[in-house]
Amino acid sequence: MRVLSVCVGQPRAMRSKSGWSGIHKMPVDGPVHVGRLGLAGDHILDTEHHGGVEQAVYIYTAPDYAWWSERLGRPLSPGTFGENLLLSDLESAAVRLGQRFRVGGAVLEVASARVPCVTLAERMGDPAFVKKFRDARRPGVYARVLHEGPVQAGDPVTLLDVAPGMDGTILDNFEAFYVRHPGAATVMAD
Fold this sequence. Notes:
Layout: E1 3-9, E2 12-13, E3 20-21, E4 25-27, E5 32-35, E6 38-39, E7 57-61, H1 62-72, E8 85-87, E9 99-103, E10 106-113, H2 118-124, H3 129-136, E11 141-147, E12 149-151, E13 157-162, H4 170-180, H5 184-187
Parallel strand pairs: 7-8
Antiparallel strand pairs: 1-4, 1-8, 2-3, 5-6, 5-12, 7-11, 9-10, 9-13, 10-11
Protein name: MOSC domain-containing protein
InterPro entries: Benzoxazolinone_Detox_Enz, MoCF_Sase_C, Pyrv_Knase-like_insert_dom_sf
GO molecular function, one term: catalytic activity
């Protein structure tokens, strides 16, 4: 498994509550430092709902991209989903909570599934995309940083151990959110 792209986002005007978002991520060349709170040069503007230690890095995967490209009938560029890392050969829904990865010079631990919001719907140009993303059950993963270090496209990704006491998959975590918040897929789409 390899890193296909490393993406960071700059503030960009959107119709979000603050009027700005960093969801428009673009691939960068060369090594990027992955620190405790995320990637160097990446801007998280809505810190109430995004970022922090538990959402330091957002990871999406090539099989999930291929699935979406087929469904949407168009190619998708790295960074489309607001991810920091695009990885090959892994479907995000099957990843275990607490799974640890060595990614380049960093070590990451899977913390939770991504829950879509209206900013993603705006990014995709589809007001109904929150529900589509929820129904697709391909959430991608948020990871915490256990060991800081550089990461770049082409770096190997090695699966390590699973954190003690962690149970379930990203899909289990994603579905549990909707059990606790049954109207979220429609409320967040408004």
